[in-house]
Amino acid sequence: MLTVFRKIRHALLESNSINKYLLYAIGEIALVVIGILIALQINNWNEYRKERKIERSTLMEISFDLMKDTTRIANDIARMQNSRNIIGSVIAHIEEKEPPDSAFSNSVMAAYSAHSPTLEKFNSAAFDLLKERGTDIISNTELRKKIVDHYTGEYSAIDGWFTNLRDVWTLEANRLYDHFRISVITDDDIQMIPNNYNNLINDPSLMNPFYHFEALMVSSLVNLTQLQHKTQDLLNDIRDELGDK
pTM of this prediction? Predict the structure, then answer.
């Protein structure tokens, strides 16, 4: 091709036709410019494909983490609901002034043992990777905002809630020592036995730790259930986005 152009250029120069040569030169420049533009377009297209490939990979990694999170949140909800039921049974036992027995003492111990409700760390490896790659890699601006808000807002808020919860719970749990003592029946049977059960059933103020435990559990369940819905909604949005790519 270059040989053809050289021959045309040489023929025009020999013909002394300046106008024709200028037209040829302009045409040759135009072809070069077009070639450059085409090359740039191909390069941009390749870069776009690479970015979309990285975007898809990142979204898939985040969706995997969110799936694991939804499972563990469901487990946390089930565990806390069980603790709430145990606390409720202790409150009912005392309010109804039923005589203390081993089942009651075991339930008090179980309620006390829940004094440090903990959540496993959320799976944030994929989000950390997204931050390294740059959040702009997510082309859907609305989805990008939801992802960032979920990890920096929702997860951070629930972590803060449970940090405060553990502190308050520990204070209330320590108050139980004023009216209960821990007794090791066997290695597998550890109970909290009331020091004076009559005082407990006749003075409602002594029940405050249990009422507080119950209120904290209810609030925790509300917060976790809301987080569960938001996590599932975000997971559904990512799945929809992946289905479009």
Answer: 0.76
